[in-house]
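Project standup — Tuesday

K.O.: blocked on the structure for the chain from last sprint. Re-posting the sequence here as requested.
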Amino acid sequence: MLISPPLAALSKAAARRAATVAAAARRRLPLVALPGAASLGVPELTSALRRRVRLMPQEDAGRTRGAPLPLPSHGRGFAADVGGSGGVDGGSPELLVVSFYRFADFPDHGALRRPLKELCEELRVSGGIILAPEGINGSICGTPEAVEQVLNFIQSDNRLKGLRMIQSPVTPEDEAIHHGHTSHSPVGAGEDAPFRWDHVRVKLKKEIVTLGDPGVMPTKMVGKYVKPKDWNALISDPDTVVIDVRNMYEIRIGKFKRAVDPCTKSFREFSSWVDDQFELTESESNPSSGNNDNGTGEPSEDLNSSEPKELPRVAMYCTGGIRCEKASSFLLSKGFKEVYHLEGGILKYLEEIPKAESLWEGECFVFDKRVSVEHGLAQGTHKLCYGCKQPVNDEDMESPEWEYGVSCPYCIATKSEEEKERARARQRQFETWGVIGGPDKGRSPKRLEANYAVEEAKQLSSSI
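H.V.: unblocked you, prediction finished:
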């Protein structure tokens, strides 16, 4: 359980929340009617805002225009309080976390950023969302009604309909953070706080998940989706190569039996690992190419074989499905014929498959305050090192290399004394104010609007 802050800290936190609400209110535009907005469950938008998001009257053949898209059923053992009662103090509504993504042809993604951010702030929905020319990726937290309104708003654009979504329960501690009942940071000493209602980030990037290869297009081709109920049979086949597409620090705390660890520090390294692991040449990854020259006028040695290299059947998985979906597109472009990936990722598998039948070992790292989850999406045992954002267990926190908010056994060797002192200073600021840099995060309240405009322009230019 989190320790309750003193009354003085609570009053400061209340003042900060009031200032945040006031700043958000100043940013909002006056509202006018938008046909169909009420039925979508989206706050009415101005004509200028409507132009930015480029909403067009659209409808599906099998669905009445504006009808809300219902959320999927909640995870095992979790029921949302749709009546708005209950919560950590009996007066605050219960919350849920929804992770979602969709690959789509979305060149005008920048137009969605500001209206989406303002909607989340209006509805007190927190989290992080990435917009890119290849689609959308995000994880948000709020009341069921508020989250549903945000998802309906996103899917009002036909290109983003059919979001792949996973819901997770929220712990009482997370609810306290979201509703402002504690000043403790859920993630990263206040800088990345997906469960604080006054903290939502909508970023513009070149990719919704960074592989670094512009030729990979999941909108054109992807591998075959495998339901959690069919996953065990596939990965138990000795002829199947099982690949964990996640990073080393994620795999360190849990993985499927027989899974290969690529030992990558970021998803960007995955393509190089595939080339090295399967000894792929340029010709093999591009069978239509007729150039077999190695630069000396002689055929490349690997091409002397009378038969092309036989690539194995591959089954891949990741946390929620987005990385392995993009990785499957990459492998197909490299000449692999049988490429499978776990639909809904590890989270969907842990939600649906009983522990007694499971081939999962350990816990699953998640990118929010929960840090890790177990079967049934129950809260895991790992905590987060705010110095490097890696998961740590009880044994790690007993180590002399562990210092809360500063370092852990996995990052202490990479940090200089100057970096450690800066981390200690940030931690002291957070313990005093509940946020890095003080109530205004080190900025003048009068400059918040100017900073917001500059940030928006900078992100838009960098994502093009």
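K.O.: great, moving the ticket to review. The CA atoms of residues 216 and 330 lie 6 Å apart. The chain is about 30% helix and 15% strand.
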